[in-house]
């Protein structure tokens, strides 16, 4: 008999067909995201759950006593209580590698858009304010090429950003991890830095660590003060790696030049968040991996992880801590 699984978010016909070969598939068909109470009821008898964003905690696991695998359609898995999964012998999986280039592209887009004021000046033109002016300084931005980028979290995506920065834009690459990566240092002529040194030297500070207890508010008031006044901060990791109030203050006080943000303390962002009023801040709605090809690859990888576990082969991408 095939194992039963539950899919809590939309997948393509191709992914559904692949899953149907190995599993009985139950699926959320509602217009909006599935409410948690409904999810808890739906998973009562399933062995696999393909999901994203939902908090996978003791309450959810207790509601699904037959569960063997929870497959996240994302690389970040801060929505998992890994300890609770371990205690219940449920495998958690994620989707690394397949989104690296797409997220790195978005990171560069945020760097460029903020430095060259693309969204601000796009609005200016579309608001029909563009008139012949004597002094074009009002349109000036900052150079990206040959500047220094500081990558906090030089992992899979961090390296894809370093690749673009080094070979696309001739940038100098600094990075900070808990441990050094000699191969990356060689490949991108990247220099390892302790955090304060990276913050002091980088023109563009890019946050790309996972959200963990250790990285929660890794950047706060003191760290923004350490950055150059001309620095641009880009966050593509998770909103909570940064103290958002400190970021807002740093921008309001001119301690940094601008910010490009894909992720926020609260998502969707609150309508009265001061970041939304700032000309020097570019905001997008958590779209790091959001292209059709990459989301399809992520969903397929998540499906393959479920099937691998439920057919006894072992997860391709198990999360361990
Ligand atoms: N905005 C979006 O749509 C997306 C966001 N993301 C986010 O990006 C994150 C990174 O993804 P990915 O590159 O695949 O992950 P990796 O695990 O490959 O890289 C993470 C890097 O962060 C470093 N790191 C971890 N903890 C710390 C710490 N305390 N201090 C400094 N560095 C640290 C790690 O190095 P070391 O262990 O040596 O410290 C590692 O090099 C995801 O976890 C997710 O949150 C990912 C995809 C899309
Ligand atoms: O935020 C997205 C992810 O894949 O992590």
Describe this structure in words.
This protein has 321 residues and is α/β, with parallel strands linked by helices. The protein has two domains: 4-98 and 292-310, Rossmann fold, CATH 3.40.50.720; 100-283, NAD(P)-binding Rossmann-like Domain (Rossmann fold), CATH 3.40.50.720. Helix content is 36%, strand content 14%. The protein has twelve helices and twelve strands. The chain has helices spanning 13-22, 36-42, 58-62, 82-87, 100-115, 118-126, 156-169, 182-187, 195-201, 221-226, 244-252, 292-310; strands at 4-7, 24-27, 48-51, 69-72, 91-93, 148-152, 172-176, 191-192, 204-207, 232-235, 258-261, 281-283. The strands form two sheets. Strands 8-7-6-9-10-11-12 form a seven-stranded parallel β-sheet, with helices on both faces. Strands 2-1-3-4-5 form a five-stranded parallel β-sheet. Strand 7 (172-176), helix 8 (182-187) and strand 8 form a beta-alpha-beta unit. Helix 1 runs parallel beside helix 12 (292-310). The longest helix is centred in the C-terminal third of the chain and has 19 residues, at 292-310. The chain is globular and about 75 Å long. The model has no long low-confidence stretch (mean pLDDT 97). Bound molecules: NADPH dihydro-nicotinamide-adenine-dinucleotide phosphate and ligand LL5AMS7Z. The ligand O=CC(=O)O binds next to loops.
Give the SSE map.
Blueprint: E1 4-7, H1 13-22, E2 24-27, H2 36-42, E3 48-51, H3 58-62, E4 69-72, H4 82-87, E5 91-93, H5 100-115, H6 118-126, E6 148-152, H7 156-169, E7 172-176, H8 182-187, E8 191-192, H9 195-201, E9 204-207, H10 221-226, E10 232-235, H11 244-252, E11 258-261, E12 281-283, H12 292-310
The structure holds NADPH dihydro-nicotinamide-adenine-dinucleotide phosphate and ligand LL5AMS7Z.
Ligand LL5AMS7Z is lined by residues 74-76, 99, 288-289.
Keywords: Oxidoreductase
Domain D-isomer specific 2-hydroxyacid dehydrogenase NAD-binding: 108-288
Organism: Lederbergia ruris
